[in-house]
Amino acid sequence: MCLGLLFICSFLAFTAAAQQKQKYVMVIHGGAGTILKKNMTPEKEQAYLGKLREALQAGYDQIKAGKPSLDAVQAAVLVMEDSPLFNAGKGAVFTHDGKNEMDAAIMDGKTLKAGSIAGVTTIRNPILAARAVMERSEHVMMIGRGAEGFAKEIGLQIVDPSYFYTPERWNGLQKALAEDSVKAVLDHGNKSSELKGTVNKDNKFGTVGAVALDQAGNLAAATSTGGMTNKKYGRVGDAPLIGAGTYANNATAGISCTGWGEFFIRSVVAYDISAMMEYQKLSLQEAAAKALAKMEKLGGDGGLVALDNKGNVTMPFNTAGMYRGTVTADGQIDVNIYR
Fold it and tell me: Where does substrate bind (predicted)?
């Protein structure tokens, strides 16, 4: 009896220790915001969960095959870019002028090379263009028509802007325009509401991102977005800005952010996490929590996913929900939406 009890206790202790040392090889997100279960139909909830699993599986397949982490994050982001569920690629939101303008970035933690694009309207998969900027040009960032010309020149798939049209995103723009008209009246003459009075917090979430750790111990991070519904004047958020919304360094971690881009830019959130890990020797979880808190103190909201060089994961967010998921080295997938 005692021996049996001792065996059970030992087994449970071993299992707990094994779980604590679980190594993750990929973490992804599909945006953060006011995502409430009461507003989600069972069908739509399953669609989101299913697509997150598909993205994780696509990335995991690359890692399992011995491919570099860059291939893994690219594969995961491609799945989400091709889905109308997320604000990236096919599901990109509309600007004030009724266009879809997309941004994307990718970074190699081994070499610290990076590539990004911003304000493109005809590249089917922006993440492919971002990687091409990194690997096939001497630059880090390209924007607008120049980026589209580069993408066409190297053979990436160029589509008519109508490819990105979805009824749900178009209706979202019409709602935002109507709210904009009301706010213009309510906020007339109130300069203190210049930013918050003209931005609907729920119009800016949906960015997708992935971070992966490959078999060689190399990290990579990628982020892709359609930006903010009803955005004006060629606005660019944090996703394509290296160090703000996207960063990877083998010495520390890979990070991909989602949320109110202006605040992530001002806080340089992604690099801030890496810097605190490198210079203050904080853990991934501690650094991410501090970086997010500093951003929140400025008035921003959103979340991030991060993976360090030891396979530890963190996914903090200060919104009602964040589409997110992980996959371990043995292929165990876990996906979540709500807090």
Answer: 235-238, 258-261
Number of folded domains that form the chain: 1
The bridge status of strand 114-120 relative to strand 141-143 is parallel
Sequence-distant (6+) residues with CB within 8 A of 10 are none
Of 338, 339, 335, 265, give the one whose Cα is nearest residue 79.
335
Residue 143 resides in a domain: yes
Measure the CA–CA gap between 245 and 284, rounded to whole angstroms. 16
Is 237 marked within a binding site?
yes
| Of residues 236, 237, 233, 276, the one with CA closest to residue 253 | 276
Spatial neighbors of 338 by CB under 8 A, at least 6 apart, are 35, 36, 37, 320, 321
**Which domain does 97 fall in, by range?**
23-338
Closest listed residue to residue 55, CA positions, set 168, 209, 165, 169? 209
- CA-based end-to-end distance of the chain: 43
Q: CB of 303 within 8 A of CB of 292?
A: yes
In a domain, residue 137? The reply is yes
260 annotated to bind ligand: yes
For every residue of 203-258, DSSP letters joined together read GS---EEEEEE-TTS-EEEEEEE---TT--TT---STTSBTTTEEE-TTSEEEEEE
Instruction: Verify whether residue 166 is a known catalytic residue.
Output: no
Is residue 115 a known part of a binding site?
no
The C-alpha atoms of residue 299 and residue 290 are separated, in whole angstroms, by 15
State the CATH number of the domain containing residue 330.
Answer: 3.60.20.30
| Residue at 81 is within a domain | yes
Which of the 8 DSSP states describes residue 93?
P
Mean pLDDT of all residues in the chain?
A: 89
pLDDT at 12 over 70: no
Q: Would you say 238 is a known binding-site residue? A: yes
Residue 5 lies in a domain: no
Helix axis angle, 69-81 relative to 126-136, nearest 10°?
Answer: 150
What is the pLDDT at residue 35?
85
> pTM (2 decimals)?
0.89
- Catalytic: which of 95, 121, 122, 207? 207
Residue 53 annotated in ligand binding: no
Q: Is the pLDDT of residue 189 over 50?
A: no
Instruction: Kindly state the percentage of the chain with pLDDT values over 70.
Output: 86
